[in-house]
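Q: My labmate handed me this sequence with no annotations at all. I'd like to see what the chain might look like in three dimensions before we decide whether it's worth expressing. Could you predict it?
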Amino acid sequence: MKFLVGYNGTVEAKAALSLARDFAQTFTAKVFVMLSMEGGAGEKPEDIAQAEHNLREAKDFFDEKGVECETHQLARGLTPGEDLVRFAEENQIDQIFVGIEKKSRTSKLILGSTAQFVILNVTCPVLSVPQSK
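A: Here is what I predict for the chain of 133 residues:
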């Protein structure tokens, strides 16, 4: 089995990472951790360094439990939702884990929702994980 986690270092994303690791241990799955960036001139060096740090942290988190993990930092000019959907299709992912942040209706309308985009556009199951309390 292959799992995909959309990761950006937030509390919600860490909750998704944790649940994906638990599932991967249970089902002996490989986990892909993907971080999507805009790419191009809009990227600041400190943002790239933070993304690299977040992915190293995620890899270490899986290595602690001996779970097979591969990390990917993408900068293809796509939104994070588009990157997740495309990556899932390109790699025959069996399940996606995404952290969700509670937003007001207005905020969703203006900013959109990566999780919602993924749920509506991907062909595999998506497990949305709220922030742990």
